[in-house]
Amino acid sequence: MSDRVVLAYSGGLDTSVAISWIGKETGAEVVAVAIDLGQGGEDMDVVRQRALDCGAVESIVVDARDEFAEEYCAPTIKANGLYMRQYPLVSAISRPLIVKHLVTAAKMHGGTSVAHGCTGKGNDQVRFEVGFGALAPDLDVIAPVRDYAWTREKAIEFAEKNEIPINVTKKSPFSIDQNVWGRAVETGFLEDLWNAPTKDVYDYTEDPTINFAAPDEVTVTFSEGVPVAIDGRKVTVLEAIEELNRRGGAQGVGRLDMVEDRLVGIKSREVYEAPGAMILITAHKALEDVTLERELARYKSGVSDEWSNAVYDGLWFSPLKYALDAFIDNTQQHVSGDIRMVLHGGSITVNGRRSDSSLYDFNLATYDEGDSFDQSYAKGFVNLHGLSSKIAAKRDLGL
């Protein structure tokens, strides 16, 4: 049997051309693997057939929507995963799942190499190849777009010359990556930092002014850090994300326009839409505010940053990430309860919290009748808390 290359297949121009190009350049057969992560768009059966039409010897479609939600999105919620404390890791958490299924396909179909369609300028090349190195270091990696300096024009020329059956006439001004956790948009006129996003940039969210007169109040229930119900109705993690995408998107919630520090060392302007992700992370953080002890909450905030950096940098399968997961999971044992929010005009406002594991004590917090806080403790506490600063101040002032 010929050598086989297992290709991460999106159904677009670059990966469709890659099927034929790999065959011609290496003599290997290509197994195309497409992953359904809830990205919408084309029917996955159409994508599967396109790979075969382009010359793949096998074309596999994996429905990984629930797996993605439960094993990749849920840990991101528990970690409050936000790169640069803004971006909910839309693309970063999908790549390790794709890597996992490509490695599985390589084992099942006799693959000796894996291939992706990433450029040399982005983060995804790192996420794919570091992931392959962690799960299957014996596999070779082929990256035709990066290693052979493909441009869109070169890909179109190759497709036309080799009669590859893919429509290459439609050109979007943007580069778009999307899944159920969110949508990432870059390039085109967005590369000028002064240009504001136009209406056609967005797809998951409405203009925040459209439903301004009809705010949406929603209650999310968590069990040990994982969403399990919306407005009292039990849901899977996937169902929670999908419903909040719909409801949050209708309110223009989850839009983000940021300049991001890429792993390769450049800054990149990115526009994101992630209504469900931002609602769930906001709610989860609000519940942690009620249920985590102060010192633990402070420390976890730093761990969340480290977790987000590691995931962004392609280290999902690393010892560091596994250790951070263990810490985060330990913090979630009491993060159960309900968070009520109002989605309105592009904003998420928490206005209600309740939990059987709450550390909020009404009698300690109240200033009214029933106050059980012994204020006689305060004077000595204040004096001791400020003692070291007071001693230093006396020295510095020569007192």
From TrEMBL:
Pathway: Amino-acid biosynthesis; L-arginine biosynthesis; L-arginine from L-ornithine and carbamoyl phosphate: step 2/3
Positions contributing to L-citrulline binding: 87, 123, 127, 175, 260, 272
Protein family per UniProt: Belongs to the argininosuccinate synthase family. Type 1 subfamily.
Any one Gene Ontology BP term: argininosuccinate metabolic process
NCBIfam families attached to this UniProt entry: argG, PRK00509.1
Sequence positions that bind L-aspartate: 119, 123-124
SUPFAM superfamilies xrefs: Adenine nucleotide alpha hydrolases-like, Argininosuccinate synthetase, C-terminal domain
Subunit structure and binding partners: Homotetramer.
Protein's name according to its UniProt entry: Argininosuccinate synthase
Molecular-function GO term, any one: ATP binding
Binding locations of ATP: 8-16, 117
Predominant location: cytoplasm
Annotated compartments: Cytoplasm
The protein's enzyme class: ligase
